[in-house]
Every structure is written in C-alpha cells, then in structure tokens.
Amino acid sequence: MPKSVIITCATTGGVHTPTMSEYLPITPQEIADSSIEAANAGASIIHLHARNPENGKPDPRPELFQDFMGQIHRQSDAVLNVSTGGGLGMTREERLRAALAVSPEMASLNVGSMNFGIFPMKAKYSNWKHDWEPAFLDSTRDFIFRNTFADIEYIVKELGEGHGTRFEFECYDLGHLYNLAWVIDQGWVKPPFLIQIVFGVLGGVGADLDNLMHMHTVAQKLFGKDYEWSVLAAGKNQMSFATQAAMLGGNVRVGLEDSLFIGAGEKAKSNAEQVLRIRSIVENLGLKVATPEEARARLGLKGRDKITL
Predict the structure, then answer these.
(1) Does residue 185 sit in helix, strand or coil?
(2) CA angle 230, 98, 21 (to 5 degrees)
(3) What three-state secondary structure class fits 300?
(4) In this predicted model, what pLDDT tens digit does every residue of 102-159 receive, in sequence order?
(5) How many angstroms separate the CA atoms of 41 and 293, rounded?
(6) Domain limits of the chain?
(7) Strand ranges (DSSP E) for the chain?
(8) CATH fold for the domain made of 7-306
(9) Mean pLDDT over residues 153-177, rounded?
C-alpha cells in the first residue's frame, strides 16, 4: 500500500512582503489563527517564520515565535517546524535564536549557499505599504544566501544534538543533495531524513518536470530507504509540482510562503485554502493524507511534549 502523504504548510515565510497580499499573516495572532486553520484542513507540519507585527518585516525574536507557537500547540496536534532560514540578510545566530529558545520537534535547514533572487517581484508593485519592502527586494540583486558547511555543522550540532530537533533539509539545487550526503557521511545527522526539494526560486533549480524527476532519482541513489522526500515549488508551479510529487510517492508543501495564489490571477485567501486544494487532489488520486502522529512516527520526531513553550 502507498504511504500516506504528509502535507506541510508554510504559513508566512520571509520572502513575500505585506504589499503583495492582504491575506499574508503578519501578527502573531494572524500567524497562529492561519496555522491552526491549516492544521484543521489537513496539514501535519506547520513551517513557521515570524514577522514584526508593526511593519511585516521578517523578525527573529523568540518571543514572537513563542506567542504564536503556544497558541498553535494548544489548539492543534500539528508538528511545529521553526525556520532557521529566517529572513534574507539575517546572521546565522539570528536565524537560530527562535529554534534554540523553543527546542522544536523540527526545524528547516538549508544545505547550500546560493544566489536568492526575489528582486524581479519589485517591478510588479508601485504603491508600497512600508518603506522597507522595495529596498528589501532590490537587495537580492547582490545577495548570497549563505549556508556554508561550517554553518550547517553549527546548526545540526547546536540544535540537532543539543535539543533533539530533526530537520526539514531544504535543497534548492542538485549540489545541495550531495552536500547533505556529505553531512550524513560525517555522522552529524541520523535517518530518517525529510528532504524538501525546492523548485522555481531564481538562483536555484528551475520548475521543470525533468528537473523534478532527476532530483528524485539522485535522491533515491544517495539516500535509499533512509529518507522521506517532499516538494515545494514557488509561485504558479506550486500545485502542479505538489501533484506530481504525490503521484511519485512523495510528500508535499504548500502555503503563502511559497505562493500567494490559489489559481491563475486569484489570490489565496488563507493557508487553509491551499491545504484543502492539495488535500482534495491527493485524495482524488486515491491516496490518504497523513495525520500528525503518522508524520511523527515516520520522521522519528521526539514528540510534542518535549518542546519548550
């Protein structure tokens, strides 16, 4: 029997800005409410970033995470996954602050440095809600999203060994799979692994079906039966790539971090709307959606009672 499909929902992220969608959760209460709705819709894992509640800028302060994570934890059974990618331009220590404070079951971990170009989005808007937004986008013309081997080692040892947190390994290109294989060979992390293959970000692998098939083939060769794999695709490719991943036996990620839309030219009004859309597709393929407990068992997580909130 095929395995059930684990749905991750990334509720706000650190890429889109408030001007781009009135539905993007900004405040801790909005992030909590949106995450709980997504969990109720079928998301087993909630991938979390925080924002400054006054202006929507990505914000690493642990107290913001603790505010909305406490609410989500009390009102759902979802796995809480704290980003260590943070916001573009944050230091390694800033990116890790929240995860070290809350000791989550899961955290994201990018396994390679890359150009991360979101500056083309600037041309689509003119009336900005906040002064920081256009400068933030434009800064990525000359920006490297740093994830060196030293950074990776620091995070897996501080958070993985120190807190028992397991990782959503984000791979934006083929070389990132080989970086992760090297990390595994050092004995820094143990299986099972969740590998999130990311498509469609300028600077990473393009959203082309041939690329998905090749990345999946290489991951199979490198990690065998020791891993779970999932796919996210930015923007217009979100649902089509998630569907392909489910058909190939993988897991999926949706959410307003990755796309602000539910269809061509139609903004998603909530994270739950995207979760319900992919859940419907998965179930119409004859597959089941994983519960949070199934996700915990398959990913070897430490349990929701062992986080600090």
Answers:
(1) helix
(2) 65
(3) coil
(4) 999 999 999 999 999 999 999 999 999 999 999 999 999 999 999 999 999 999 999 9
(5) 15
(6) 7-306
(7) 7-10, 45-48, 79-82, 106-110, 114-115, 144-145, 166-171, 193-199, 227-233, 251-254, 261-263, 266-267
(8) TIM Barrel (3.20.20)
(9) 97
Q: In 10 A of CB 141, how many CB atoms?
A: 12
Q: What angle do CA 235, 17, 173 make, to 5 degrees?
A: 45
- Residue 1: the pLDDT is 66
Rounded Cα–Cα distance for residues 69 and 48 (Å)? 9
Q: pLDDT digits over 187-206, tens only?
A: 999 999 999 999 999 999 99
**Local structure of 187: helix, strand or coil:** coil
End-to-end CA distance of the chain: 37
Could you give the C-alpha distances from 118 to 17, 104, 111, 136, 184, in angstroms and in order?
Answer: 11, 29, 19, 9, 31
Give me the numbers of helices (H) and strands (E) for the chain, helices first please: 11, 12
Q: What is the pLDDT of residues 90-105, one digit of tens each?
A: 999 999 999 999 999 9
Q: How many CB atoms lie within 10 A of CB 164?
A: 15
Confirm if 113 and 143 have CB atoms less than 8 A apart. Answer: no
Residues 24, 29, 32, 37, Cα dihedral to 10°: -70
Encoded amino acid at 62, one letter: P
Q: Would the pTM count as exceeding 0.70?
A: yes
Residue 183 CB-density burial (10 A; 0-12 exposed, 13-18 middle, 19+ buried): buried
Amino acid identity of residue 227, one-letter, is: Y
For residue 117, the one-letter residue type is G
